[in-house]
Amino acid sequence: MSFDRSLKIAPSILSADFANFGQEIQAIEAQGADWVHVDVMDGHFVPNLTFGPPAVKAFRPHVKTFMDVHLMIAPVDPYIEAYAEAGADMITAHVEAGPHIHRTIQAIKATGKMAGVSLNPGTPLESIEHVLDLVDMVLIMTVNPGFGGQKFIHSGVEKTRRLRQMIGDRPIHIQIDGGVTTETAPLVAKAGADVLVAGSAVFKGGSVDRAEVYGKNIRALKSAVSAVL
Ligand SMILES: O=C(CO)[C@@H](O)[C@H](O)COP(=O)(O)O
């Protein structure tokens, strides 16, 4: 399969209706979501708790596109197989989550899944220089991880630009996560990102006619980006 460099919107289901995940996933996919982003938090690496492998397994049958599982947990290695078996298409681990990111990426690859590496806002790009050839995606956090609805940290734009240069022609996705809105999405897309995670910006305003509102929100993000590319 050829590498897809086009813009992809990956709604974070952390902002979805927790009583209706199946319907929420079906709604965002029907309304133009390209990937489904699942935020896994452990109450240790980040100050919040979310989805264990059984929850991810329950999401799986509803996801028809691509399920991208972002592990904000430490230690991470003991849980990789469980999230792979639960049905993740890509597993992303944080470079800050342990001393052996190279081993962690090898462990993800050994499951047959795609591998991503993530950096918190305060972590320099140099920390992933020597694993770039092993990964399918780099996730640049533009908020401190743990919660949806936070304000975008603007240093992520220059970081994205520099990462795009570091990557060159290699088939590696650049994903941005945190505070993505119609104002910030064009900045990171122009800097070289191709996968934008959006929680609040997709799920906001969806109490009545939820699916329609999600569709409007996804289209607004896509058109904000296409206006600058
Ligand atoms: O990983 C995280 C937070 O740690 C994100 O995926 C957020 O869930 C994105 O939410 P918004 O900033 O788009 O509301």
TrEMBL record:
Top EC class of this enzyme: isomerase
Range of residues in the leader sequence: none
GO molecular function: D-ribulose-phosphate 3-epimerase activity; metal ion binding
Active site, UniProt feature: D39 (proton acceptor), D177 (proton donor)
Cofactor: Co(2+); a divalent metal cation; Fe(2+); Mn(2+)
Binding site for substrate: S12, H70, G146, F147, G148, G149, D177, G178, G179, G199, S200
Family in the record: Belongs to the ribulose-phosphate 3-epimerase family.
Reported function: Catalyzes the reversible epimerization of D-ribulose 5-phosphate to D-xylulose 5-phosphate.
Protein name as catalogued: Ribulose-phosphate 3-epimerase
Biological source species: Shimia gijangensis
Gene name linked to the record: rpe
